[in-house]
Design brief:
The protein is α+β, with helices and mostly antiparallel strands and about 150 residues long. It contains 4 helices and 4 strands. A 4-stranded antiparallel sheet has the order 1-3-2-4. Strand 2 and strand 3 form a beta hairpin. The protein is elongated and about 90 Å long. The structure holds iron/sulfur cluster (2 copies). One iron/sulfur cluster binds next to loops.
Amino acid sequence: MSTVTVKRSDLKAGEVLCSYCTARCCRYFALPIETPENWEDFDHMRWYVMHGHCSIFVDEDTWFLMVYGDCKYLLPDYRCGNYEDRPKICRSYTTDDCEYDNDGTYDRFFETPEQIWEYAHAVLPPKKKKRKKSQAATATQKLPVVHI
Ligand code: SF4
Ligand code: SF4
């Protein structure tokens, strides 16, 4: 559910949408990550999320790591304190399709390591049980070569 007080369609001529926003786009970054395919991949993702201040989401089959954190140039009134020297990615971003009024829902969304692990258990084949060390050692011991 959107929590905005002013709808895009209510903007008057000359008004800027960002004036009504708490700078949602300046408070995180998200990077695409490889699609997890096995237990090790999910274990890595589990480790990311253990650090807090981040989550994993999937949008149109692409997996992303989202890291929460306000840009150091974000001013208390939600304006950019580095406007003239802001990075290219900020310059090219527009309000046309920004997250101002999106509801923050994704195809999949993981906030805790437990959620990731539960999902891994649902989609992966069961983990192979580790053999006890002594058994493993015995199994890898080579047979003696018999010379005839
Ligand atoms: S571009 Fe969109 S999300 Fe970013 S500050 Fe403006 S209205 Fe908010
Ligand atoms: S440099 Fe400015 S526009 Fe870019 S993320 Fe930081 S506060 Fe936002």
